[in-house]
Every structure is written in C-alpha cells, then in structure tokens.
Design goal:
Blueprint (H helix, E strand, L loop, with lengths): L1 H9 L3 H17 L4 H19 L2 H17 L5 H14 L4 H7 L10 H15 L2 H10 L1 H4 L3 H23 L4 E3 H8 L3 H13 L5 E4 L4 E4 L8 H26 L1
Antiparallel strand pairs: 1-3, 2-3
Helix pairs in contact: 1-2, 1-3, 2-3, 3-4, 4-5, 5-6, 5-7, 6-7, 7-8, 11-12
Length: 253
C-alpha cells in the first residue's frame, strides 16, 4: 500500500495516494512494523499533508518522526527527512529555524550539500532575494531542482517571493513604468508584466496595465466599511437574547 501511495502521488493523484496511505497506516497499526518502514510511512504522510492540505506544520511533525526513526537505525535516508523538515520551516515563513535545526545535535552528522542547499534557500527567503534564490537553484540543482517534492514547493515559494517584492517596489507609486520595476527587481520586463497581470486578475493588486504606454496604474485602496458587518452581528446577538428570554418565559409559565 505504501508503494501504491507513492505511485499515485508520482502520477499526481493525491487523493488516491492519501487513501492508499490511510490503508497502509491502518494495517501497520495492527501488526509489527520495522522502524525503517514506519519511518517511510511517516515520510509519505508528511509529503501528502504538504501537497494536499498545504499543512506544513503537520507535515513537519511527520518528517521529524521519520527523521528520528531513520536516524535511530543509521539509515542514510534520514537526510531526506531532514531536508523536508527544513523545507517545511521555510514554507512556514520561519527560515531562521533552519539554522537552529541544523546546529542541533541530531542534525550535525548530516551536514553536507543537501543541508547546505536548504540553508541557501532559507537565506534567500529571509533576505527576500530572488537573485540568491535563483543562484541556489543553479548551485544545488541536484539537491533542489531534481527532487520533485522540493521543486514543487520551491516554485510556489518563488512566486510568493516575487509577488511580495513587486508589491514592495510599486507600493509608493500611483503610476509606474514596468521597465522601471523590472530594472529594480532585475528580471526581464516580460516576466514582470506577466506576473503583474496575474496579480491584477487575482485581485491581489488593485490596478490596471496600460500596455500601450508600458505602465501600471494603481488604484487607491478604499477602507473597508465594517458598519454592515457590525449591524449583522448586533442583530444576531439580539436574536440570541430574545430566544433566551423566550425560553425562560416559557419555563416560568
């Protein structure tokens, strides 16, 4: 069942991968399972939680269990679990925790290119440096890009970093040339224009692209009027109070 789960996951069918994993874990709970196999179940659980639910907090717990199990039997696959632990911290937006984990007693013996690759990504994430991020992908291609689990999440992280950097650059402006933005962020103008268009469509950026003039025009964000929501809450609370009074009156009668 574990192999079936891995196969479905590799084919992109996460729901069937989860179902197969649940069956495998149920079976494992009923019989004795060697530590290596139990660690593989934990590792797969973390992978699926990260992929399907984007729940890196739970995923980290599973990766940690897998790492401890594999480290306890001196299995070289422990470094894979360690890599995914570090990835989880980066995706949780706490890249500083990467260095704390790496400097810990358990992780010290696994220091090498695999760990250095994730440390480089953590630094780039902490510094919000797209250039350093891309450089890390080139330098540690085998450890990052060639690992499909890590690559998929790093693609999401890069897009998030790109969006944050673009918002930070254009925030002071009401109208700014796309060429100017691309020069500051050090990316091709076509890439920047495409990302800005996507952000506008996703409504994460209030504005329009004027492709004729090569500028982005930003709208002023209007403050959200919460009067209507507050009124609804008040009416809801009044209804609850009336219901309570009605029940008390009914008991008295």
């Amino acid at each position: 069942m574990l192999i079936e789960s891995k196969t479905y996951f590799a084919l992109g069918n996460v729901s069937k991968a989860r179902a197969a994993l649940v069956t495998a874990r149920t079976t494992a709970n009923a019989i004795y399972v060697p530590p290596a196999l139990q660690s593989q179940l934990d590792l797969q659980s973390g992978i699926i939680h990260a992929a399907e639910d984007v729940d890196f907090k739970t995923a980290y717990s599973y990766f940690y269990e897998a790492f401890e199990g594999l480290d306890g039997i001196d299995d070289p696959r422990a470094v894979i679990a360690l890599k995914y632990m570090l990835l989880s911290k980066i995706m949780l937006n706490v890249p500083e925790d990467v260095h704390i984990i790496v400097d810990g007693k358990l992780a010290l013996k696994y220091i090498g290119t695999d760990v250095e690759a994730l440390k480089a990504i953590a630094r780039a994430s902490s510094d919000r440096s797209l250039a350093d991020f891309q450089a890390a992908l080139v330098t540690y291609k085998e450890q990052l890009v060639d690992d499909p689990i890590i690559r998929s999440h790093l693609d999401n992280l890069y897009n998030k970093m790109l969006e944050q950097n673009l918002l930070r650059i254009i925030e002071p402006y009401s109208r700014v040339q796309i060429e100017h933005v691309s020069m500051i962020i050090e990316l091709p103008q076509g890439v920047v224009e495409k990302k800005l268009s996507q952000m506008i469509l996703d409504k994460s950026l209030p504005g329009i692209l004027d492709q004729g003039e090569g500028v982005i025009v930003l709208y002023e964000s209007n403050p959200v009027d919460k009067t209507y929501e507050a009124a609804l809450d008040t009416v809801g609370n009044l209804n609850k109070a009336l219901d309570s009074l009605f029940l008390r009156a009914k008991k008295l009668s």
